[in-house]
Amino acid sequence: MIISTPGRICLFGEHQDYLGLPVIAAAISKRIQIEGDFREDNIVHFSLPDVGAEETFELNYPLAYTKERDYFKSVLNVLYRKGHRLDKGLELTVSGNIPINSGTSSSSALLVSWVNFLNEIYGLGYTQKQVGEITYKAEVLEFSEPGGMMDQYSTAVGNVIYLASVPEIHIETYARELGTFVLGDSEEPKDTLGILSHVKFGMLGGMKKIQAKYPNFDLATEKDPAKYRGLLTDDEWVLLQSNISDRDLLLEAKAMFEGKIAWSDEKLGSLLNEHQVNLREHKRISTPKIDRMLRAALDAGALGGKINGSGGGGCMFAYAPNNPGEVVEAIEKVGGKAYIITVDKGTTKIR
User: Fold this and answer.
1) What is the pLDDT of residues 320-350, one digit of tens each?
2) Which of 115, 246, 271, 335 is the most buried (most CB within 10 A)?
3) Ordered structural domains, the chain, with CATH
4) What are phi and psi of 316, to 5 degrees?
């Protein structure tokens, strides 16, 4: 059996889902796959030739974690607690072309593939959305990780999705044909923990101060934040304003995707550019190299673009429905590695 799962880009809502705000994400035509079959014993063996690694363990439940973020086992433990004792050994090979550690969700795509592989080979009957939910539990909740749920759901469901997690998980899928994007890998390692310490915990700290005095404060609906200025440090105030701005940019994009306002490729590009200003100037998650890559893409005719993922390195993307080849060339001239991508389907059984 072969299961294939896409990576993803975050169109709108970077650093928003863990604040209870929605995101709009798109699955992309860079994918990872797991190929495998049953063994005669109860051993699970993964071969990961792209990263020169292997992993082997025995199926004795509950599976004991023997390393940090022991994800292959955590998926099985989550399924075990849902009533599935999957005790046949498996021989598996992982391959793919999603840039690793670059903000395009290669790790979540791998785990979605693993969940869906088990789902299909055992006939568990889970939908794509449920595969995303199981993956989120195994990757984030099982290890008390700080991330949101965008990666798991967007790679599982595919296409362009609007994902809200408050007051409950709500997903809408948009079928609009967007044309080409260009993904640019800076090949700079991400500083995820450093970024989160500033952007996430800085904002959560500011919200805690506000809610102590204004218990009904709701970031999703707040229209006039000026009254909170005196409660916050300069950094917290900047983060609050940028999060409200990014929230409103997403809502404007959502209205376009839903046909409530007229669609415009140029407008989508403009909204991406505005989002990037907040990410670069106020949340400070961009890097000089990624800034150069974005400027080169825009100068070559891209309609807009932004950093992708938690930041501090990794990838950017540009919306280039008209001239992707020229944008690729421009990004590579300033030191990035570029790929033409399109919006793609979610996790899929190939055979």
Assistant:
1) 999 999 999 999 999 999 999 999 999 999 9
2) 115
3) 2-176 (3.30.230.10), 183-341 (3.30.70.890)
4) -125, 170
